[in-house]
Amino acid sequence: MKKYILKRVLISIIILFIVAFVIYALMRCLPTSYIEAMAREKSMQPGSKSFEEWMTQLSAMYNMDKGIVPGYFMWLGQMFTGNFGDSWYYTIPVVQKFHETVWLSFVMGAISFILELIIAIPLGIIAATKQYSKADYTISIVALAGISLPTFFFASLLKLIFSVKLGWFDLYGLVGRNHQQLSAMGKFLDIANHLVLPIIVLVVISIGGLMRYTRTNMLEVLNADYIRTARAKGLSERKVIYHHAFRNTLIPLVTIIGGSLPGLFSGALITETLFGIPGIGLTSYNCMVGGDIPFSMFYLVFLAILTLAGNLIADILYAVVDPRVRIS
């Protein structure tokens, strides 16, 4: 197992360098750039230098006058020293801005992920054990609705009903107008109140796929010969389903859960933008639209690391879930 993990880690590092180079090349080819916007703004000031002169000066300042390959290795050298540069859009260090925004997205993602597991997996099992019943049809309809609903439409619908019509929640933002005048518990409840609708959107949109996936795999396991043998031996239906069948259903579910780990830190770009939540999703969107290469590079490489780590964790968990899986 140790040899396998070491091999996978080394392969992941090589893949990470390749992915980082592709990301850097794409960032350099963006049609919009913060440098261009800054040069255009400065060139319009009275008595200022021309746009081309400002572009030359700013490009040299941000090492954009180098080619893609030399620029990538310069960025790589700075990364190894822990220097990820300053965000061009927010004009503060990249790591500082990342630290300010990522934990809010992590809390939203973690809560929605836990709720997704609590809701989707049991409903998927119920749908499989009661195949073609009213419960199965109802759960399947809910799952298909969750899969089919566009995030922006569902979020806008919730805002229309609960914010505009009923007035239970604010339309935008993380805090209310009188947030500073509230007590510590009041501030906590105020923030929690603003996160209710975004978390509902994340949960409803995500449970459909996991629900259908659980149902399909559970049906496949329930039709296996060893399940019929377990029932023939007189085992209770509950023990057959949750001890024998569900244990083997966990194997493919581990892949889904392991692949979901990056989502806890990546943020919900559309949801955060629609609700005005200042998380990492909204921040990364602003940086990418503004051509902020330092922050976009850091964010995308961070997601690549999480994706590789999630795949490695999923592979290792196979041996934990299924004793038949052993890596020599």
Describe this structure in words.
With 328 residues, the chain is mainly alpha-helical. The chain has two domains: 2-80, no CATH class; 97-321, Orthogonal Bundle (MetI-like fold). 76% of the residues lie in helices and 0% in strands. It contains 14 helices and no strands. Helix 1 runs antiparallel to helix 14 (293-321), helix 5 packs antiparallel against helix 6 (134-148) and helix 12 crosses helix 13 (280-289). The longest helix has 39 residues, at 184-222. The termini are close together. The model has no long low-confidence stretch (mean pLDDT 82).
Any key phrases for this structure?
328 residues, mainly alpha, MetI-like fold, 2 domains, globular
Record the SSE blueprint.
Layout lengths: L1 H27 L5 H10 L7 H11 L6 H13 L13 H36 L4 H15 L2 H15 L18 H39 L2 H8 L4 H23 L1 H6 L2 H7 L4 H10 L3 H29 L7
Helix pairs in contact: 1-14, 2-3, 5-6, 5-8, 6-8, 7-8, 7-12, 8-10, 10-14, 12-13
